[in-house]
Specification:
Helix content: 25-40%
Number of domains: 2
CATH superfamily of the largest domain: Vaccinia Virus protein VP39
Strand content: 25-35%
Structural class: alpha/beta
Distance between the termini: 36 Å
């Protein structure tokens, strides 16, 4: 299951999650802009922009935003659907960001684009890379799954149909590795493909010292994109941290 993210984030991923569209992204970007106090003078990085649904609305809001991702397929989808954004994106590994130090006013890590690698050291390297490209006093919007609630409500097996796709998903939480694992089986026209997901389920108590070690301090916590306070029953863990 190692390096699963290199295989999964392609056209099949887009087909399985069609509800994660630009309409929903607009309200999320509105919240991001408000909570970070973004203005047209700010320079922003969408750390794992995927197919660019948030990047699109950032630009619609007159925010100068760059996006990047490891997935060639998602970046190609972005370029095909929103060609005006193609000059604002590039391909990279988030552990090794290809930017000068102290160049961004804000960095966004959205929808659990974290916890993919094998070790805590690698995940810490992501946070340190983010801090290095962020200006002192810059803001880091970190949106992650709420591990406590997700594990508590994990559904072991589910089946859904989207168009001509039959999608079987099998989930488990590995107590030893503290990872939420998912196997996705996609059947279409008699052919079946299988993919994996594996995310290190960091709790707030685990991620907070990592942020501190990467020279961040936490300024605000939210439990969703409506601005509700974070609790163990929240849908999300949204952290707004400041580079120190």
């Amino acid at each position: 299951m190692q390096d699963w993210y290199k295989e999964w984030f392609g056209k099949e991923y887009l087909a399985v999650y069609p509800h994660r569209d630009t309409k929903l992204a607009k309200s999320e970007v509105d919240f991001i802009c408000k909570s970070l106090g973004l203005s047209e003078s700010d320079f922003v990085l969408d750390l794992a922009c995927g197919a660019g649904r948030h990047l699109y609305h950032l630009h619609q809001s007159k925010i100068k935003a760059v996006g990047g991702d490891l997935s060639e397929a998602l970046l190609l989808d972005l370029s095909e659907k929103t060609p005006d954004l193609s000059s604002w994106v590039l391909r990279y590994d988030m552990r090794f960001l290809p930017f000068k130090e102290n160049c961004f006013d804000a960095v966004l890590s959205l929808f659990t684009s974290f916890g993919y690698f094998q070790s805590d050291t690698e995940h810490l390297s992501v946070l340190k890379a983010v801090r290095s490209v962020l200006k002192r006093g810059g803001r880091f919007f970190f949106d992650f799954l709420n591990a406590n609630k997700t594990i508590r409500n994990l559904v072991a097996h589910s089946v859904k149909t989207i168009g001509d796709l039959k999608i079987d998903e099998f989930r488990n939480f590995d107590q030893n590795t503290k990872r939420i694992n998912k196997k996705i089986s996609i059947e279409q026209n008699g052919n079946t493909k299988e993919f994996n997901e594996s995310v290190r389920a960091y709790t707030l108590n685990e991620i907070e010292p990592m942020l501190k070690q990467a020279s961040f301090k936490i300024n605000h916590l939210f439990g969703d994109y409506l601005g509700n306070s974070y609790s163990e029953d929240s849908d999300r863990l949204i952290i707004i941290a400041e580079g120190i």
